[in-house]
Every structure is written in C-alpha cells, then in structure tokens.
Design brief:
By secondary structure, the protein is an alpha/beta fold. It has helices at residues 3-21, 25-46, 64-72, 145-152, and strands at 50-52, 76-82, 88-92, 99-101, 107-109, 124-128, 131-133, 138-139, 159-162, 168-169, 183-185, 190-192. It has one domain (3-192): Rossmann fold (3-Layer(aba) Sandwich).
Length: 198
C-alpha cells in the first residue's frame, strides 16, 4: 500500500470514527430501526435463505435487532469471528446468542466455528464499513478481514455494506487489494451500486 493512500485512509477513518462517536443515543436508535427496515425489505426482494451479517458495535448502525428477526423468519445467519491469521471464521447466529469480546475488543458471537469457507454458501453478505463511494469501493476499518474474505470467494453473492447516510461519499481512497460492494444499506435507503471488480 502506498503511503499516500494509507495516510488518506487513516485520516478519513479518524474523521468518520469521530463523527460516529458524536451521535446521540436517539440517533443510534433511529438508525438501527431504519437499517432493520431496509435490510428486511432487501431480504424480501431477494428471497434469500442464508446470509452473513455482523454484530454491530455501539457506534455502528445497529444490526442486532435485524439478526434476531432474520433468525425468527427462518433465515440462516452466519456471524463472523476474527482469527489471528487474518481470516474470518463463521458461526451460526442464535436468537439473542452469547457475545464475547473478539481479538480487537469488538463484539463477536459465541458458538461452534464452521471455518472460513462456510461463508461460500450464503446468498447475501451484509458487512460493516466506514464509508462507501458511488463506484462501490468500500473503506473498512483497516484490518482487511472482509477484503480477504470477498477476494477469496469463488462465487461471491451480492455484498451490501451498512453505513450511515453521510458515509456514502464521492470517493474512497483505493488500494489494489480493496474489494468493492454491490450496494449500501443506510437507515433511510438501500442503493444498488455498480462495483468495478479488479
């Protein structure tokens, strides 16, 4: 990664992290309700049987109520678990399942680990992001877990990043290993993008 791209990513992440930390509890609650509605509608349009999602941190647009509702609807939901080798492992979500702190102190599910390739069987991936641009390029939080996962999938299904409305921006700094997404889900809208695979 070139120093210029690395610096630009670091600066943008810091700005976005600060913006998220300034949100009120009410704004977070409203965002989670909106994301839940948008993701429910996406599932209804795409008729999926199995998805991957993530357990949101307190500053991310909330996904937990959606995960529980998807399980209740009979959808198989895989949740990521970070590994020391830089790959994501996966476990099946259970209603109000146990959560622990993962490698980086972020919330992760407790459950039987299925291995990194388990995600190859899902119909839709719902992933976190710091920002996404109009070309579908995603800025993650810098550890590369989701870029590695997406880059290694044989048949990658649609990938939607969950962000706040203000985090759909004109351009995300891009490096060669960065993977695009198919669309974004925000508290107010779901947008299909036309990512350029490289």
């Amino acid at each position: 990664m070139s120093d210029g791209i690395d610096d630009a990513k670091r600066a943008l992440r810091a700005e976005l992290r600060e913006r998220r930390q300034l949100l009120s509890d009410q704004a977070r609650t409203t965002a989670e309700e909106g994301v839940h509605r948008q993701l429910d509608a996406l599932l209804a349009r795409t008729d999926v049987r199995s998805i991957s999602c993530f357990l949101s941190t307190p500053t991310e647009p909330g996904t937990r109520s959606f995960v529980n509702a998807a399980i209740e609807r009979g959808i198989r939901v895989l949740l990521p678990v970070t590994r020391i080798d830089g790959l994501l492992d996966w476990t099946v979500a259970t209603p109000d399942g146990d959560v622990t702190d993962g490698l980086f102190g972020l919330p992760e599910p407790v459950g039987e680990l299925l291995g990194p390739i388990a995600v190859n069987d899902v119909d839709l991936l719902v992933i976190p992001a710091a920002a996404v641009d109009h070309r579908g390029m995603r800025l993650g939080w810098g550890r590369g877990y989701f870029d590695k996962t997406l880059g290694s999938m044989e048949r990658c299904p649609p990938v939607y990043a969950v962000i706040y409305d203000s985090e759909l921006i004109d351009e995300v700094p891009r490096d060669v290993h960065d993977q695009p997404v198919s669309g974004v889900v925000t508290p107010t809208q779901t947008i299909v993008l036309s990512p350029q695979r490289h």
